[in-house]
Amino acid sequence: MFAEIKGLNEECGVFAVFGHKDAAQITYYGLHSLQHRGQEGAGIVVSDGEKLSAHKGLGLVNDVFNPDILAGLHGKAAIGHVRYATAGGGGYANVQPLFFNSQKGGLAIAHNGNLVNANHLKHQLEAQGSIFQSTSDTEVLAHLIKRSGYYSLEDQMKNALSSLKGAYAFAVLNERQLMVALDPNGLRPLSIGRLGDAYVVASETCAFDIVGASFEREVLPGELLVIDDTGMRSERFVSPGNRAICSMEYVYFARPDSNVDHINVHTARKSLGKQLAIESPIEADVVTGVPDSSISAAIGYAEQAGIPYELGMIKNRYVGRTFIQPSQELREQGVKMKLSPVRGVVEGKRVVMIDDSIVRGTTSRRIVNMLREAGAVEVHVRISSPPIKNPCFYGIDTSTTEELIASSHSIEEMREMMGADSLAFLSTEGLKVGIGRSEAMHNCGQCLACFTGEYPTEIYADTLHPHAKL
C-alpha cells in the first residue's frame, strides 16, 4: 500500500455496443479509455446473434487482449469491463463480464458498483439451491434472473433488479439483446451514445470521444434500457429515488474530459479549487497539485488566490501499479518511484500543495517530506474535498473506519502527522457549490456518505466489515 500514489480505488468501468460489425474492437478501445477505473482485470463478451464468445484475464486491457484475440471475437454486440477488486476480492473467477450458459442460451453481465444486500440475497439463493461460481456480488443478478419465473429476459431483469439494493450500473447481454440498468438513486454514472446506427454505453463519456461516438443522454435512475435489432426502448423497473450520484466521481474517479450528469469533471474540479481558495486562503509563493487528479483543482486554487500555478511534482508514468518492496527502507522510496519534486520550482518557496483527498495519510506525509527535501521552506496542504470519515459501501475500497485517518484524528493531529505547516479541507457545502449540483436544481442530489455518514440506501448488517462502524 505504501507505493500507492492514491488511497482510493473505484470498482470498475463498463462499456457496451450494439449494432456494429466491429463490436469487439470498439469495446477494446472503449475499455482503454476507462482503464483508470480498474487495472486488475479486463474482459469482453461478444454476440454474433446466435452465440456468445468471451475472453477475459487478469491485468491491464493491453495485457489481456491482442489483435489475434480480438479478431476471434466475432459479432455486432459486445459488453466489456475493467475491474478493481472490492466486493468479493480479486482472482480470475471474479473478472467480468461474468458469463453463464443455460439450456435457453448464454448470458453475460458487467457491473459497476456494489450491492449492499448481496450477502443477504446469497444466503436466500443458496438456501434455494443456488451454487455460486465466484465471490462477486454481480453473480447474484444472474441467479435472480434465472429464478424469476418469467419468460422474457426483459421481465426477468425487471423482477431481479427490483430485489437489489445499493449502487449498480449493469450491462447485460444475451444472443439477441443488450440491456442496461441503473440503480434507483443513480449512484454510479452511465451514459448512452450513438456510433452511426450503433448504440454505445459507457461508464464515462470520455469513452464516446475515443471511439468516435456522439453522446445521447444519461441513463436515468431506475431505468432499464432494452436494445435489439428493432432499436432502443426505455422501461422502468422501479420508481426513481432521491438522486445521489457519487461525489467522488467529480473529485477523483472520473477522467477530466468526461461529463458526469452533464457537468464537466475538469470544470467541476477547477471550481472546487476556487472554492477551496475562498474558504482557506494562505500566503504563499506557488501552488502545485498532486498529479493527476488534483491538477484541475490546483489551477482553480491558483487562479482564485492570485498565486502562480507551477508544475511542482512530476509523475513517472512508466512505473507499474504495483512495486516490489522487500524492505522498509525501500518502502520509503515507493512514492519517490512515482512522484518527483521539481526542485527549481519549489526550492526556497512557500508551497501550497493541492490534493483531492486524504484517506490513510501515509502518502500525504511522504509528499510533504519530499517537497521539503527539495527545498520548500513552507508546505501548506489544501484538500479539495471534505475529510473522508466514513466507509463506502457502494463500490469504493474503504469498508472500515480504521482505514480512514480523518475518522479518528482532528485536522490539527493530521497536520502534525504529515508535517505540514497548515492543513485545510473543503467544506461539505463548498463541495456542493463547487461541483454545481445545488439543491435548488431539480433532483440533482449527490452521495456525501463518506463525508457525512448519511447513506442514501439502507446498509445491511451483513454488508459491514467486522470493524466497520456507522
UniProtKB/TrEMBL annotation:
Pfam families: GATase_6. Mg(2+) binds at S293, D355, D356. Binds 1 [4Fe-4S] cluster per subunit. Its EC number is 2.4.2.14. [4Fe-4S] cluster binds at C246, C392, C447, C450. It catalyses: 5-phospho-beta-D-ribosylamine + L-glutamate + diphosphate = 5-phospho-alpha-D-ribose 1-diphosphate + L-glutamine + H2O. The keyword Lipid biosynthesis does not apply. It comes from the Bacteria. Residues 12-230 form the Glutamine amidotransferase type-2 domain. Its cofactor is [4Fe-4S] cluster; Mg(2+). Pathway: Purine metabolism; IMP biosynthesis via de novo pathway; N(1)-(5-phospho-D-ribosyl)glycinamide from 5-phospho-alpha-D-ribose 1-diphosphate: step 1/2. In the C-terminal section; belongs to the purine/pyrimidine phosphoribosyltransferase family. Catalyzes the formation of phosphoribosylamine from phosphoribosylpyrophosphate (PRPP) and glutamine. This is Amidophosphoribosyltransferase. It comes from Shouchella miscanthi.
